[in-house]
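HUMAN: Ready with one sample?

ASSISTANT:
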Amino acid sequence: MALTTWAADPAAAAELIAHLRESRRETHRRAQTELVAELTELAARHRELAARHRELAVRSGELTTALEDKHRQQRETAARTADQQSKISAMEARLNAGEGMTSRDLVALQGDIDSAKAALAKLEDAELELLESIEELQGDVAGLKQESAGIAAQGKEKQALRKRVEAEIATRLAELETAIAQDLAHMGPAADPVRADLDAGGPGLMPCDAGACGNCGDALAGADLAEFKALQPGTVFSCPDCEVPLLRQ
């Protein structure tokens, strides 16, 4: 079966191939796959930090409540201790005055005050531990806020970059659309099959050098190859396999 051929202006055809190739490249670049993936990753990390921040807020509330309870216990213990100390002082005064205070009574009272002081010390230790936990928690929250702010800043910067790149690509694609239309206007009869292939979602026009299709990669053979070799450079023909228009270079 003979190749279907169309005459074309070689310079316009070569320029059209270059413009179509660049248009495909810019269209692919328009997806900005890597940048979109980075933004998606940043958004996921930001959500993780927000969830962690909420967890820490709950924990902070729990610690604050526990600390307030310890403060209350400390105040109550301090009051009991002061009352006990007051009683001891009164008893010691009576003892010194010779008012029937026995050494056993004094020892018992001293034991009471020692117990109260020990309980107070335990409360103070627990309070200190809680304060340290809250301080550590506040540090974690501050770190999360700083990291979240950093991620937000990165996201904002990358979004701005994405918009700039999108605008640049859109401008270039519009320029290429105009250039392709001008190339087709100079293509002569070969413009029709090229337009038809573009309308069908194909590449429009691909190069063919040494008998291999620039689209599907299949090599011409037999009579097709012989006919291809006889074609003048600049001739457009349809690939026998994928039917995409090819330019004899």
Q: What stands out?
A: The helical segments are 10-30, 33-96, 103-185, 191-199, 222-230. The two ends are 22 Å apart (CA to CA).
